[in-house]
TrEMBL record:
It comes from Christiangramia echinicola. Pfam families: Nitroreductase. Residues 38-206 form the Nitroreductase domain. Keywords: Flavoprotein, FMN, Oxidoreductase. Signal peptide: none annotated. This is Nitroreductase. One of its GO terms (molecular function) is oxidoreductase activity. InterPro entries: Nitroreductase, Nitroreductase-like, Nitroreductase/BluB. SUPFAM superfamilies: FMN-dependent nitroreductase-like.
């Protein structure tokens, strides 16, 4: 059955139909959601077990529900399970990381990273069954063949990546945000069009049975918030 409709600025709008919960339900649901997200960890040790492609499709669809500047949806999610491509990506990423760790990164940066146990070895790029490489669409080509810049591209794609990460976690899988810098090699290896720039690389899979994560804590509510009440 068609819902109510309305014309605003000459464009059709449909009645918003969202969930409505009691206050108790809201408190319970928000707490459960927080607890679930709080159990997420960036994991660097993956199992090579395959996962169904439907799961990858669903988590990409979840990311694609993100809000974006002028609803341009300026993102493309490339899902790679092809071993040859994964090997090429690992090789190129490690080459950049060797430069990063050995000369581009400052002493302070290396010291800040030490607790996380990262290094130039990116074997997870070959072991994880899927790599999702997120590209941002900096511009689109209009009907007249002209370049038209998209709006708030970094914000939009960043939000979509957050939703992707939470969808991966919700499926019981793990990931980590990998940003080999510079990332141009991803456009070349995956033969991406000129309006796209690599934004983030996320290996996706099950955690390895013997996976360890850093013993670090999150900031408390008091540290991450300020409330302005009367
Ligand atoms: N890109 C490098 C270095 C690195 C940088 C930051 I900031 C991190 O939080 C983690 C790693 C790498 O992936 O190893």
């Amino acid at each position: 059955m068609a819902g109510k409709t309305k014309i605003i600025n000459g464009y059709g709008h449909i009645a918003y139909e969202g969930d409505h919960f009691t206050e108790d339900e809201m408190i319970t649901k928000s707490m459960e959601y927080y607890n679930s997200l709080d159990s997420r960890r960036s994991v660097r040790h993956f199992s090579n077990s395959m996962i169904p492609i439907e799961v990858i499709e669903n988590i990409i669809k979840a990311a694609g529900t993100a809000p974006s500047g002028a609803h341009k949806q300026p993102w493309k999610f490339c899902a790679v399970s092809n071993s040859e491509l994964k090997s090429k990506i690992r090789e190129a990423a490690e080459k950049e990381e060797q430069e990063n760790y050995n000369s581009r990164m400052s002493e302070r940066w290396l010291k800040d990273l030490a607790p996380l146990g990262t290094d130039t070895n990116k074997e997870f790029l070959e072991i994880a069954p899927w790599l999702i490489i997120v590209f941002k669409e900096v511009y689109e080509i209009d009907d007249a063949g002209e370049k038209q810049n998209n709006y708030y591209v970094n914000e939009s794609v960043g939000i979509a990546c957050g939703m992707l990460i939470s969808a991966i976690h919700n499926a019981g899988l793990v990931t980590l945000t990998h940003t080999p810098s510079p990332m141009n090699f991803l456009s070349e290896i995956l033969n991406r069009p000129k309006n796209e720039r690599a934004f983030l690389l996320l290996p996706v899979g099950y955690a390895a049975e013997n996976a360890f994560v850093p013993d670090i804590a999150r900031k408390k509510l008091e540290e991450i918030s300020d409330f302005y009440k009367k």
